[in-house]
Amino acid sequence: MDAADRSIVRATQGGLPLEPRPYHAVAAAVGLEPAEVMGRMERMLAEGAIRRIGAVPNHYALGYRANGMAVWDVDDARVDALGARIAALGLSSHCYRRPRHPPHWPYNLFTMVHGRERAEALRAVEAIAAVLGPAARAHEVLFSTRILKKTGLRLAG
Amino acid sequence: MDELDRRIVNALQGGFPICERPFAAAAEGLGTDEATLIARLRAMREEGVLSRFGPLFKAEGLGGAVTLAAMAVPEERFEGVAALVNAHPEVAHNYARDHQWLNMWFVLATEDEARVGATIRAIEAETGLPVLNMPREAEYHVGLRLEA
Fold first, then answer.
1. Which end of chain B is more exposed for a tag (fewer CB within 10 A), N or C?
2. Helix (DSSP H) and strand (DSSP E) numbers for chain A
3. Host domain of residue A73
4. A155: pLDDT strictly greater than 70
5. Is there a domain that residue A156 lies in?
6. ipTM
7. A70 & A102 share domain
């Protein structure tokens, strides 16, 4: 990622201009040709530096008030294969492996589940538990009760 | 939100085109036109239905480092500790969560790996509480889109 890429990131990380030619507006703002901006964004998308381009809905505004972090203690030998299967179920918005902190925190697989009510989110947890089976020795669901800060990820400067 | 708003949110959580008139191209598939699509997106952003419309960058792709961290904060100190944690610009999100002891969960996004450790040590020193660092070791690809 070079200086021109970074200038595009800074110009678009808060959102694209909502006007008919948004990439042209970005190009004008950063002092590049529109074709250059579009080419660089295509490349960042292909490389995964851009995950996706589109609408980022606010879970709460859409009525998803129950947002739970379901955490699982899964056999190390099987966690990668099972993590991939769980992610593919389409029941969680994020699925990651993270380090355990024994003895109090034995969990290594994290899945985020959402529902309009807790019962709806817990149904997703049950469906995930059914797929994990005995490979998951324990699990917990930590529902968020309050957003204390939310600024999003930002490239400084 | 009406039926068109829902269709827009459901269809456009990814795959927005990169071309000269992307809203015109996206509107076609939604059975609407460019001006209407732009007006609907503006309204939903202003109302907070959308927190953003545009590219979602992967922090590591930007050369930065991200981690998830958790703390066990005594109830009576909760607000004060939240203020200390949130004062760090590296803290991107912070959530209170229901748990018998790990009740504060925050995401640190920094420009490099060294900054992650430095921020965690600073928070531990300021609060006198241990911070558990839980960096992502593997990511499994998910297909979920929130339905409006």
1. N
2. 5, 5
3. 66-143
4. no
5. no
6. 0.80
7. yes
Over residues B62-99, the pLDDT tens digits come to 667 899 999 999 999 999 999 999 999 999 899 999 99
The vertex-B26 CA angle with A42 and A3, nearest 5°, equals: 25
Could you tell me the CATH number of the domain that includes residue B85? 3.30.70.3460
- pLDDT of amino acid B110: 86
How many CA atoms within 13 Å lie on the side-chain side of B76?
0
Chain B contact for A153 (CB, 8 A cutoff): yes
Chain A residue numbers touching B83 (CB-CB < 8 A): none
Q: Give me the residue label for tokens 């694209």.
A: A16
- Structural domain boundaries enclosing B92: 59-135
Chain B nearest-CA distance from A157, in A, is 11
CA distance A134 to chain B (A): 20
Is A55 among the domain residues? no
> Which DSSP symbol is given to A49?
S
pLDDT tens string B15-69: 999 999 999 999 999 999 999 999 999 999 999 999 899 998 887 666 678 999 9
For residue B75, is it within any domain?
yes
Tally of domains in chain A: 2
Q: Which residue has the tokens 């070079």?
A: A2
Closest residue in chain B to residue A64, using alpha carbons only: B146
